[in-house]
Model the fold of this input.
Amino acid sequence: METKRNVLIVTDGAESTRNMAERIAAAAGDHQVVSLSAADLTGTELLPAEVYFFGCAEPHPASFAYLAEVLRHINLVGRACGLFAPQSQGALHYLSDMVHDSEITLNPSPLSADTLEPRQWVQDVISLLRHNGGDTMEQDFNLDACIRKVPDFPKKGILFYDITGILTKPQAFAYCIEQMVELYQDKQIDAVAAIEARGFVFAAPFALRLGIPLILIRKKGKLPGKTLSRTYQLEYAEATIEIHTEDVPVGKRVLLLDDLIATGGTLKAAWELITACGGVVPEIFGVIGLPFLDYEKVLGDIPVRTLISYHAE
Ligand code: AMP
Done:
């Protein structure tokens, strides 16, 4: 598998920042560096990339609105790193709240265009890119291309996101599992609970990789032991799910997982089952997220991560 780093530098469009980014792009020869302003990004289809934000040294509301606009147009699968001046912690928190699909980290030694020579700044950024390069995964993988969108399935008005195209391509499937392992291997997850049936497919290799128990949440009547059940509304039907009460480790951290999060109803019901059995759900994961169906309203404060999000049908 070819590993090519795809680095996107997003600037605030100011000429000085653009100049800086261009110098970095020219100097960082072994990376595929693209420097764009948010205006350039609008409507652009981008590959998953490591994203570096520049030019938010001033915690100005216009910068926030601007970055918000950028984030809506980027499918953030890679990591994002804000290169902010020390006084810009506020901007960073703002971004972290908005982007669930990526990790936004502050440069360990924050850079400031005010205090450093521009030349030094450029060098620091290049070494930051190099330093972060060691443990990156496949960054140029187009997951979207593997997801077939089927209109009016299983009934009129529903656009169905079909993950079978991921499963038939070992590279795509491996990419998903690797991303999931990367996201959660350091998050002290004690077990993973998955929703029948497509959730099982992703959860099983993930559980094995992390060496943690896999808990099955199944449709009504499938589990033979003592169960707890919940009935809830789906995007296109009503359903009842069940869990073996004894499978949930009391007081332990159970990651909840499904292939796709639409309205969030299924995962909310699953969350209720796990909590009723004494488990703690620190996060919810979906390979695909459809935030335009407002799952965040249903899931409330529970952090949600997805590998790919669609913001409109
Ligand atoms: P929800 O409870 O609305 O979040 O629905 C999530 C569950 O329904 C997941 O198990 C999905 O597999 C399935 N699902 C809901 N909507 C869709 C859709 N548009 N495309 C594919 N699967 C869907």
Observations:
- The pocket of adenosine monophosphate is lined by residues 158-161, 195, 198, 234-235, 258-266, 295 (CB under 6 Å).
